[in-house]
Amino acid sequence: MIPFNKPHLTGKETHYIYDAVNSGKISGNGKYTKLCQRLLKEKYDFGKCLLTTSCTDALEMAAILIDIKEGDEVIVPSYTFVSTANAFVLRGAKIVFADSRNDHPGIDEHSIESLITSKTKAIVPVHYAGVACNMDKIMQIAQKHDLFVVEDAAQGIDSYYINNHGKKQALGSIGHLATFSFHETKNVISGEGGMLVINDSQFEKRAEIIWEKGTNRSAFFRNEVDKYQWVDIGSSFLPSEIIAAFLYAQVENITNIQQKRKSIWERYYNQLIDWAAQNNVGLPHVPSYATNNAHMFYMVCKDSSQRDKIINHLSKNNILAVFHYLSLYKSPFYELDYSGGRLKESDRFTETLVRLPLYYDLTDDELTKIIYTIISTPF
Amino acid sequence: MIPFNKPHLTGKETHYIYDAVNSGKISGNGKYTKLCQRLLKEKYDFGKCLLTTSCTDALEMAAILIDIKEGDEVIVPSYTFVSTANAFVLRGAKIVFADSRNDHPGIDEHSIESLITSKTKAIVPVHYAGVACNMDKIMQIAQKHDLFVVEDAAQGIDSYYINNHGKKQALGSIGHLATFSFHETKNVISGEGGMLVINDSQFEKRAEIIWEKGTNRSAFFRNEVDKYQWVDIGSSFLPSEIIAAFLYAQVENITNIQQKRKSIWERYYNQLIDWAAQNNVGLPHVPSYATNNAHMFYMVCKDSSQRDKIINHLSKNNILAVFHYLSLYKSPFYELDYSGGRLKESDRFTETLVRLPLYYDLTDDELTKIIYTIISTPF
């Protein structure tokens, strides 16, 4: 069986875990947390970085930081993971769903402005498949209407947006806040795990407090206060050093990981392109303002029946390919509260997008088998 | 230096982590999560168990499950960790603080009934130092006033309440819901980590959904629904299998860990009892309805000056002893919202309680040194 995903060990993970245990500190915010945060901050020119137990938790921190209250509105794409919306719902927000672009599952930047009301507080672009949303346009809308931008960069590590002046900016370095995932299905992993990036420095101090259960513990350890106390709401957003130690072995190896993933992605693309054109199957589109971090290789079928045929044919040949999100505006939880119109691109990606196996340890032979099997799908 | 705490490795932690990685599954709710949940449930006769990323997160799940809304009141001891209160504040609750008993930092069960109003929704007894609160009394009050009981058993693993009929009930098996911590300072650890126990079966189904980010993913994997969707609020409460694998090596060894901790606790008690009596220092009180899980060895000094002298004398001799909570009703975050009176026992424990080093790898020689140093404190 070729699975859809297989977590990859770089080799040093358990070594670092041993080291953390032997140092006598495996709760959060220790040596490996700081090492991960520093390495990622420097490599990608991020603002302050705080590891979290998941990208969901990082989104919840963002919702607390921008002070979401009952009745505030947040603009979120419909074609995304539930947490992009749930994190704001937990604080009382009304979610206003935006459609995807026609050429890409990312938010249609041209649809955003018409969704803004006097209650809108934030826009949450999701960099689907690690491919940038149109951030110049989104930041410009946010500035005009005095809104916060929280980049959901769950899939966006090591990917870039190329701005109007030709400058490459790492995804997660642009919005006021940004969130990453290190879930086992991502490029660098810690099983479950995430990170909040704070690019707007007004949020730095409070972020540290919310991260540490609403206490000023970080300030206490810097000797800025003489005891640590309950000063705000918050949660236990910080991961164990066991997780941070595992993650450090991964982020240290990111160049190597990315090289391998990109070579797999490119083989898929180059060897499927003719077949795709002949069969009206769309391959991933990377706009000129975006780079590709090879997080995902997906195809957009002409209809759900074509997708079923491909998934079933792969399955019969012991290859697991999977569809992805279901339009959130139609979810059992939110459909009654949703007052907007039909989001046809979100529905189309719901019905027609399929993801192929893509992981570090995928062999050349396995890749050949997957590509051959797709091409031989009987329609 | 003798630290206050040192995490203990049983030896199999990294072996199980390797196994988890090699099995191809290190995100949450895998083999080791299920092994931990089953072992703990069976050993302690708990209801459904769900591992969480922290005890804080388990408390937040409890607050969502009992449907805490703006304005609901929750009775919480003042002498506890911030998360006991914060988890309910995050959902909009007003916290009504209760005082501690005179002979023990646990909630004074006789003070509870006068704090109940028509808005009260839950009582959250905290089993301080792993010593049971008077659960018969508390459950009886809850039943009379139709309230939920959420046991904060962060420190309470492997400890028991002996009920009015002489039956031993594990802490965490009594309230409608209960929460545990596996933070590195606890008896069994995973760095950061926790667990929610659901003893009232009406909450089981929803707990699984809230745990999995508000989706019916668990039902999907049991083939009860044909796709998994957004059906409720929720968060990513489940820990990585890396954490669960580590924890499993610990819970497998709980008998051995507990034996060692209890022998340390008893040496402290037996060798300090005469000195304590002579110096008006209180040693831990274990009521007749409670057992001792040797989570903590604390002393209650006659005043804060005596405590300072002991802590300083130990510190000069390279031994780290630490005080504990600060009365939450006086915290910067809550003092303006607090409308009750002075809680004198909570204030007294804030000012006079000191905790001594207690961990598996504490040697006999180190223990001798600590006891000797305490006894030689110049007053």
TrEMBL record, chains A, B:
Q: Which domain of life is it from?
A: Bacteria
According to the UniProt entry, what is the EC number of this protein?
Answer: 2.6.1.59
As one GO molecular function, the record gives: dTDP-4-amino-4,6-dideoxygalactose transaminase activity
Q: Which Pfam families match?
A: DegT_DnrJ_EryC1
Per UniProt, which keywords does this protein have? Aminotransferase, Pyridoxal phosphate, Transferase
Checking NCBIfam families in the record gives:
ECA_wecE, PRK11706.1
Tell me which PANTHER family the record gives. DTDP-4-AMINO-4,6-DIDEOXYGALACTOSE TRANSAMINASE (PTHR30244:SF34), TRANSAMINASE (PTHR30244)
Q: Tell me its family.
A: Belongs to the DegT/DnrJ/EryC1 family.
Q: What is this protein called?
A: dTDP-4-amino-4,6-dideoxygalactose transaminase
Gene name tied to this protein = rffA
